[in-house]
Amino acid sequence: MSRVANNPIKISKEVECTFRDGIFSAKGKLGQMQTTVNANYKININNDEIKVMPNIESNKDPNWGTTRAIIANIINGVTKGFTKTLELNGTGYRASVSGSKLKLELGYSHDINFDIPADIKIECPKQNLIKLFSINKEKLGAAAAKIRSFRKPEPFKGKGIKYIDEYIFRKEGKKK
After folding, report:
1. Backbone phi, then psi, for 84, in 5-degree steps?
2. Which DSSP helix (H) or strand (E) runs through 9?
3. 84: part of which helix (H) or strand (E)?
4. Inter-axis angle of helices 63-79 and 137-149, to 10 degrees?
5. Cross-strand bridge partners of residue 96
6. What is the pLDDT of residues 117-136, one digit of tens each?
7. What residue ranges define each of the domains in the chain, with the CATH number in brackets?
8. Can you count the helices (H) and strands (E) in the chain?
9. What is the pTM (predicted TM-score) of this model?
């Protein structure tokens, strides 16, 4: 059993945290986020650390560690933010940002226009790179997965959209 939930979350001076009526909110230099905390847990906020504790000492279920991880991600998001980078591999594959749309040319007969969610910033430093930035880790991962789903990398030539640190296991083609 993991004991991650016992670890306190360190916070810096520039983060303001509050916990009232089951709602935890944090405000930092990048923005403000809040989440609803399960009624089985309480959050103790001290000067430089936060601890998630169960209301009943015997109630140490797996959601305790999950609750702690969600709160740690919120604090990390409002202080540093999260980034993901996608890479396009394939002849003629391009990406560009225009306004609030991400235009993808992925070898289909039509271009794909992806509406960028409000709290995510997308930039394309090169035609084959897409950088996503957000303070919300959950929405960032969902947006990156949605973009990747338009053309997943295939195992024979490696063409498609992949995460920058992802390894594509290559298969050998047919033999005569």
Report:
1. -140, 145
2. strand 9-10
3. strand 82-89
4. 90
5. 103
6. 999 999 999 999 999 999 99
7. 4-79 (3.90.930.12), 82-163 (3.90.930.12)
8. 2, 13
9. 0.88
